[in-house]
Known about the structure:
Largest sheet: 5 strands, mixed
Number of strands: 12
Oligomer: single chain
CATH topology of the largest domain: Alpha-Beta Plaits
Helix content: 25-40%
Strand content: 15-25%
Number of helices: 13
Shape: globular
Amino acid sequence: MENPTLRKIIHVDMDAFFASVEQMDHPELRGKPVAVGGNKERGVVAAASYEARKFGVFSAMPSKIAASKCKDLIFVKARFERYKELSYQIREIFFSHTDLVEPLSLDEAYLDVTQNKKGIETATEIANDIKETIKREIGLTASAGISINKFLAKIASDYRKPDGLFIIKPHQVERFIEELPVKKFFGVGKVTAEKMHKMGIFHGRDLKAKSLAEMISYFGKSGKYYYEISRGIDNRAVNPNRIRKSVGAENTFSESVFTKDEIIDKLFPIAHTCWTRYDNSNAKAHTVNIKVKFDDFTQITRSKTLTLAVETEQVFLDTILQLVDDLIVLQKIRLLGCSLSNFEFEESKIEVKQLTLGF
């Protein structure tokens, strides 16, 4: 294990967050298979309860397929404002231990507790305290992974779900990675895993046997990342000031649209939601994007980059109209979305000194 710094990193991941919130707020849903988002005919599952997962229902699955896998599946409408409200409460619990908190989404975050506010000796005690506080004050369960870097902590948090706690100590890192199937490596997707399997790479030990030059020749820029993580190397700091790269909104329709008039009619309310989110940020975007998903689930995007930053909603809408006008629509559309990206942020930097202590 060649990592030159030893830090105490915790990855906290809420258990089936959206679905668990719905079951908490609506007791009649507890113990039942629940899918958040979509309905039996349209849409996509945003989250599935553990009862639904037993039937093979998972997030990002088309609702129609989910319904066919579980005949008793209960679809509920997503309430993102409620999820955000609870997510902020959970983050306050994180911040009571450390200021080095890096949210990845509403339901997960990295914490660097190498130094912590309460003077707790071990990361394990901190993780247990976080889990117990979330359960006591909010009523939900979380799983936590603990290790010396972000890569290992992320993998560890998934090992004992739900309501789990898993620790990979420094002396365990090398053996753990060598025995880990490559398909479980964070950052190795299904396609990459299949490519590795064809090359005879099935576990971390197989990956570790390859040289850096070989990995780069096989996988390009990602090769260096795979080379390092197979050796337990991940020097990324927990960044409490992660920069958001885009702001967007989208919607799946109960009835598909086809004509450009229908597209504009459906897209403008989505655009208004997107603009509200953008207007509340401190960013200046130069690129406007639209997203189109057809009935056969194929997807296209179109974008336009402006020399000047997008300052008004009218400029945003006018640019969307141009993108829609250039669209060639050959089949019905089930989902539309739009976003602003290519951000230019106001200068504001916070310097954080990273201390490194024993685990």
